Amino acid sequence: MLGDGEVWTSLIFLTPVSSKTEMPHKIEFFNFYIFHLHYNLAAHMWVDNTPSIHIQKLKFYHLSIKYVFGELCVRCKGRLWCGLPKCPILEAAKSYLPKLKISSDSLFGISPPSIFVGRHNYPNVFAGPLVSEDNHAREFSDTSALYGKDMQYILRKTSSLLRASTEINVKKPNGRMVSATQEIAMSIKPLDTELKIEKIGTGPSLDTFFYPTGPRVIPRKIDVVDNPNIPRKVDNIVDEKIKANSAIIELYKYGASVDYLQRLLSAGILGHDKKMVPTRWSITAVDDAIGKALMSEVKHFETVDKIEYYTNSFMGNEFHILLIPGTWEYEMLETWLKGAVYASETVIGEDYEPFGGRKNYASQITGAYYSARLAVLEHLQSRKRQAKVLIYREITPDYKIPLGVWVIRETVRHAMLNKPKNFETMNDVISAIKSNTRVKSWPSKSKIVYNLRHQRTLDFFM
């Protein structure tokens, strides 16, 4: 019997019999190995239950369980780089989510409003609105409302949301489900929604980028009972058919929240070509688009005149944020401590961009990079200042279930509301930060710290 937080999986490796490279272009013969593993979430470790008899002699061919199920899990964050059909860590974590009972094939509830567009089997994905019978779901029409709440509260509220979805070609969206999804996405107020359920699909959903939700249901009918409250500005922009990026920036300046803009992009409402966008992708796309727009303004401001140190923590995520005098640069480092979700060992990651920006995706930090960058840029833009920005995030074992990148965005936003501590030298501020972190080696991974040490005068550190 498996306990809570445990999941079994079988892992199959196909490795070339005779090749000198890890990823040969042509493979003709294979060794075939099967490993029987289960992941224990409470112990944060993989347990190997592989039988002693294999089809051929066991070898990993430049791979090891430590690599495949150690650092790789932190880098992957549920994107299935291991080749398994489901992430065993996320599957194990689902056992901690509240169980939602669906007792009828008819449901009358509310959408906060919120939608979800999947990414698996793209472009044919499952998509639709999120609907809850819990009237308190109205409380989190925006994820900023979840900040400061405890884990159980968040899981109880978000897990009450059913993913009412059908398979949709995101490049050619049409039909009643698409129109209902778009109505809900465009509304700034919760909407009463009625579902006739055809069948219950998969169980609850966990995603690194989005908050947890309840099970997926496939409706045979969906009706949005209320009239959506859509800002006139949104209607005008949709009618103008301007580029999605331009629409996002214009609506953000108009006062639209990041969550609202992510819904619009995901629902296929913005841009010349009305295509739905998987939720995970739309979250990062909006954070990135707004961040770049703010960055173009911030780069023309005067710099801060002292080193400013901000800190904040939420849900086992501890942030240390430095604004350093000088022209814009941005770097984020994060340490996943052993015992945090995904981390069976302690792993440090880093992504950086110079004044001219970066051309590729922040593959080490992923979506958190763009969410944190947006939060700091909002702060700098409001002050009409620029700075070199260095963020160090330490993820502790208290962060056992991924809640979405809104955690990063809101925690950094609230950090920037605090009064900073000022320091004269980098040595002083790094010593102060290290006194409050479990891992002391992180400054050696920082490009900004390295560049300042080698390009600044000694007076800057004395």
Summarize this, please?
The chain is of the alpha+beta class and 462 residues long. The protein has helices at residues 65-76, 88-93, 151-158, 176-186, 232-240, 244-254, 258-266, 279-298, 367-383, 406-415, 426-434, 447-455, and strands spanning 6-16, 30-40, 45-48, 106-111, 115-117, 124-131, 162-164, 166-169, 191-200, 216-224, 302-303, 307-314, 317-324, 329-336, 347-353, 385-386, 388-395, 421-423.
Task: Outline the secondary-structure elements.
Layout (H helix, E strand, L loop, with lengths): L5 E11 L13 E11 L4 E4 L16 H12 L11 H6 L12 E6 L3 E3 L6 E8 L19 H8 L3 E3 L1 E4 L6 H11 L4 E10 L15 E9 L7 H9 L3 H11 L3 H9 L12 H20 L3 E2 L3 E8 L2 E8 L4 E8 L10 E7 L13 H17 L1 E2 L1 E8 L10 H10 L5 E3 L2 H9 L12 H9 L7
Parallel strand pairs: 7-10, 11-16, 14-17
Antiparallel strand pairs: 1-2, 2-3, 4-9, 5-6, 6-7, 6-8, 9-10, 12-13, 12-18, 13-17, 14-15
